[in-house]
Amino acid sequence: MPSLRLGNIAPDFEAETTAGPIKFHEWIGDSWAILFSHPGDFTPVCTTELGEVARRADDFAKRNVKLIGISANGLKDHNKWVEDINDFGASYGPTNVQFPIARIAIADEDRKISTLYDMLDEQDATNRDAKGLPFTIRTVFVVDPKKVIRLTIAYPASTGRNFDEILRVVDSLQLGDKHRITTPVNWNKGDDVIVHPSVGNDEAKVLFPEVTFHKQPYLRTTPLKVSE
Ligand code: BEZ
Predict the structure, then answer these.
(1) 10 Å Cβ neighbour count for 221?
(2) Entry pTM
(3) Ligand 1 near 43 CB (within 6 A)
(4) CA–CA dist 199, 181 (Å, integer)
(5) CA 75 → CA 16, 64, 78, 106, 203, distances in Å?
(6) Where do the catalytic residues lie (predicted)?
(7) How far apart, in whole angstroms, are the C-alpha atoms of residue 136 and residue 45?
(8) What is the phi/psi pair of residue 204, to 5°?
(9) Active site (catalytic) residues
């Protein structure tokens, strides 16, 4: 079971990254952050993921989200691999696009940060390096500007993550922080939302003039106009 839970403060750490040394909390600043681990450099699924993250840089920036990757590799490998990510990424993105975001990755050769964040899965015997040491698995931590962990996900090494889904959750969290709402199954930005259960019906009519009261008394939905 992961030792870090939703609502915990994301542990702070110092790290060497491809963009220089950082202190995690200081680096996050007033932004949201996504810390995501991957099994290793020069691996196929990870190469597609990092290319995608870089290609979607504007989607994350628009939401005030900074991304930082991590694996148990050294800086030399990270920097060399960035060339591959850029090269592969450019083959399915617009030409001459560089992917600067892929340059921000933590070099966690000694697995100190991966251990702190419980990113090593001793149970997964298929995910080990040549020496038999566990690779980092594909974890995702969404951290808000107060440094609180708001989402954790773990994917198997064999399955690339769906960054549309991660962005969707960020949208839901950010909207829920601003409005007294939750979001239903398969919700996407722009779809109707659910009035938070803590809002009484009279208050719901004031807060959400277009509210619909469904047959189930606990289910109230409403459109929500949001600026980009
Ligand atoms: C990959 O990124 O392709 C990968 C890495 C480790 C194990 C399996 C797949």
Answers:
(1) 18
(2) 0.92
(3) yes
(4) 9
(5) 8, 26, 5, 8, 54
(6) 46
(7) 14
(8) -60, -40
(9) 46
CA atoms 190, 192, 194, 195: torsion sign:
positive
List beta partners, residue 120: 136
Nearest residue (CA) to ligand 1, atom 7:
157
Contact 82, 46 (CB under 8 A): no
For ligand 1, is residue 158 a contact (CB within 6 Å)? Answer: yes
Give the domain 179-223 fold.
Antioxidant, Horf6; Chain A, domain 2 (3.30.1020)
65 within ligand 1 shell (Cβ under 6 A): no
Token pair 């491809």 is found at 18
Reply yes or no on domain 8-160 having CATH 3.30.565.10: no
* Smallest CA separation from ligand 1 atom 1, residue: 45
Q: Which of 132, 142, 155 is nearest to 33 (CA)?
A: 142
The full set of domain ranges for the chain reads 8-160, 179-223
220's CB contacts (< 8 A; 6+ apart) are 194, 195, 199, 201, 204, 208, 211, 212, 213, 214
Contacts of 179 (CB under 8 A, 6+ apart): 193, 207, 224
